[in-house]
């Protein structure tokens, strides 16, 4: 049960001063809280024996007031310090999770779904927060505070009565242990179900246009209803165990009260203790209710926290597939990019996406990459970005192995526009500035001209300040592609990768973008993958991929003269466009 504190010992060791102060202040406040019942008993005895004077009563009242002020001040300090520490823990773990997500490769995101990661970053962190705050409080109150009350009851009143009143405690320990084990397993299942529901909601929102287009609203609503019912059932199972804690505690506390009142009255009649002692004892017994409840709360909180911490640690323990070498080499210029007999297969697949791939790219060259769907075009770029491990052969930049260069430096050189453009829920200006945070409006307008987006920006209601919505939902496919292009252009990278990133724009717009691209990137390396061959005809070198192998390569003119797949595809596309040209 206390394993969760051991798992969090790294945090408690770092903030040991904060938690030491909080616990000492909590114990001090609890100790001060034990004084008033003694004053009540003391006053009752003086009333019983007619020895209470006005001076003594005034002293007792002033003492009460002083205790209230001191108790309030110390209680504020421990509360602020303890629960402030819990908030810091939640912040730390959330930051660690976010850093971890940023370092992870596509393999990680293939294993963990977004909705489940969101659940771990929200609900599970709240449970961990509760453990570091309320869990520590219940631990102190259910152990030290309970022990303090028992000592006061035994030493200052009667050990006979104290032991008799505490007979239900062992029963409580056994029952609470069983409840705790059930809470841990059921809460883990409930959190997993919540993560699955998150996934469904996220996919439904993202795919709402497709759902409507295929008239699947009712089916999606039914599927969501089934998911929520499952979450409901799992949480009800947790609530059933949760609901047993309080009644069980009340029965055991009731037994303690019955024993304390009955046996205590007998001891008063026998003159073993005074009436004031009996009143004080019952006040202490009332104070003991919270520590006894705290035992149940402690088990509940720790089991939930342990389950949530296991889920979070499971995520954080996932080792990145691609890591920086211990002593990365620093390269000043990207002179050449060499692929030497590169072979690669995606995890959990046997088919090679790249097979014995070799290519030399010199600085300033434009490389066209074409081929059928699934030929390996995107895979080639992902390997250049070091998104996957398990590559055989050599990929070198300026004769230095890619694995010996830091990930930060590699990716700082590259401007990447993938097939599926990602727009952030911000303005068009902010989306473009993602490529260069300090970019001025003048620079933004310039790259929008290169991406042929100036006419579009004039039609948008707020120009650069237009909100694009989540994933750029307010923009068309072609507009999203051109904003993504502008974002890459403003970075002015050493290596620009366009992975079929103009598929949603018309041929004339594509031609204008290509013309701008040729003028702007004369001395920098560019890779262009496209199904539309007109996008690569100007390239210095074109490679045709099939099943991860280069089956044709050369300039546009060379490939036309070869009479292979490239020529056949090029003329077929020219016929489709109604622009047959003689070569």
UniProtKB/TrEMBL annotation:
GO cellular component terms attached to this protein's record: plasma membrane
Regions crossing the membrane: 20-40, 52-70, 76-93, 127-151, 157-176, 251-269, 281-302
Annotated ABC transporter domain residues: 337-572
Keywords: ATP-binding, Cell membrane, Membrane, Nucleotide-binding, Transmembrane, Transmembrane helix, Transport
InterPro entries: AAA+_ATPase (IPR003593), ABC1_TM_dom (IPR011527), ABC1_TM_sf (IPR036640), ABC_transporter-like_ATP-bd (IPR003439), ABC_transporter-like_CS (IPR017871), P-loop_NTPase (IPR027417), Type_1_exporter (IPR039421)
Subcellular location: Cell membrane
Chief location category: membrane
UniProt protein name: Multidrug ABC transporter permease/ATP-binding protein
The keyword Nucleotide-binding belongs to this UniProt entry's keyword annotation: yes
Membrane topology field: Multi-pass membrane protein
Entry-linked Pfam families: ABC_membrane (PF00664), ABC_tran (PF00005)
Domain ABC transmembrane type-1: 21-304
MF terms in GO: ABC-type oligopeptide transporter activity; ATP binding; ATP hydrolysis activity
């Amino acid at each position: 049960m206390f394993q969760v504190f051991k798992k969090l010992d790294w945090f408690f060791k770092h903030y040991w001063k904060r938690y030491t102060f909080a616990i000492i202040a909590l114990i001090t406040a609890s100790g001060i809280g034990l004084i008033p019942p003694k004053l009540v008993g003391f006053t009752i005895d003086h009333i019983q024996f007619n020895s209470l004077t006005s001076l003594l009563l005034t002293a007792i009242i002033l003492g009460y007031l002083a205790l209230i002020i001191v108790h309030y001040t110390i209680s504020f300090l421990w509360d602020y310090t303890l629960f402030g520490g819990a908030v810091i823990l939640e912040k730390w773990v959330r930051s660690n999770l976010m850093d971890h997500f940023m370092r992870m490769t596509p393999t990680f995101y293939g294993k963990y779904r977004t909705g489940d990661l969101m659940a771990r970053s929200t609900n599970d962190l709240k449970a961990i927060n509760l453990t570091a705050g309320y869990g520590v409080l219940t631990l102190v109150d259910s152990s030290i505070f309970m022990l303090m009350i028992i000592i006061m009851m035994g030493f200052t009143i009667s050990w006979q009565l104290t032991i008799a009143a505490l007979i239900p405690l062992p029963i409580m320990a056994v029952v609470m242990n069983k409840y705790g084990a059930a809470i841990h397993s059921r809460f883990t299942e409930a959190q997993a179900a919540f993560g699955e529901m998150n996934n469904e909601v996220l996919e439904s929102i993202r795919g709402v246009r497709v759902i409507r287009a295929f008239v699947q609203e009712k089916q999606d609503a039914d599927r969501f209803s089934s998911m929520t019912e499952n979450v409901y059932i799992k949480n009800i199972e947790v609530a059933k165990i949760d609901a047993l804690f309080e009644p069980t505690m009340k029965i055991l506390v009731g037994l303690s009260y019955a024993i304390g009142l009955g046996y205590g009255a007998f001891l008063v009649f026998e003159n073993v203790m005074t009436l004031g002692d009996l009143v004080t004892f019952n006040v202490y017994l009332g104070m003991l209710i919270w520590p006894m409840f705290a035992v149940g709360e402690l088990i509940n909180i720790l089991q939930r926290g342990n389950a949530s911490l296991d889920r979070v640690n499971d995520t954080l323990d996932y080792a990145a597939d691609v890591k920086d070498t211990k002593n990365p080499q620093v390269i000043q210029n990207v002179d050449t990019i060499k692929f030497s007999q590169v072979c690669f297969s995606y995890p959990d697949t046997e088919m090679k996406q790249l097979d014995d791939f070799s290519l030399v790219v010199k600085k300033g060259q434009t490389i066209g990459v074409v081929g059928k769907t699934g030929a390996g075009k995107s895979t080639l770029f992902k390997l250049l970005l070091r998104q996957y491990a398990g590559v055989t052969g050599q990929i070198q930049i300026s004769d230095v192995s890619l694995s010996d260069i830091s990930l930060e430096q590699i990716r700082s050189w590259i401007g990447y526009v993938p097939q599926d453009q990602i727009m952030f829920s911000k303005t068009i200006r902010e989306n473009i500035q993602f490529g260069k945070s300090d970019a001025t409006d003048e620079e933004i307008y310039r790259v929008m001209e290169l991406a042929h987006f100036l006419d579009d920006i004039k039609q948008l209601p707020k120009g650069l300040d237009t909100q694009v919505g989540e994933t750029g939902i307010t923009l068309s496919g072609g507009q999203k592609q051109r904003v993504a292009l502008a974002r890459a252009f403003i970075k002015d990278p050493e290596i620009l990768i366009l992975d079929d990133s103009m598929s949603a724009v018309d041929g004339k717009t594509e031609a204008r973008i290509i013309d701008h691209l040729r003028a702007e990137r004369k001395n920098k390396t560019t890779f262009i993958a496209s199904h539309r061959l007109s996008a690569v005809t100007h390239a210095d070198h074109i490679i045709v991929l099939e099943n991860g192998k280069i089956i044709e390569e050369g300039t546009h003119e060379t490939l036309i003269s070869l009479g292979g797949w490239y020529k056949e595809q090029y003329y077929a596309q020219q016929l489709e466009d109604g622009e047959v040209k003689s070569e």
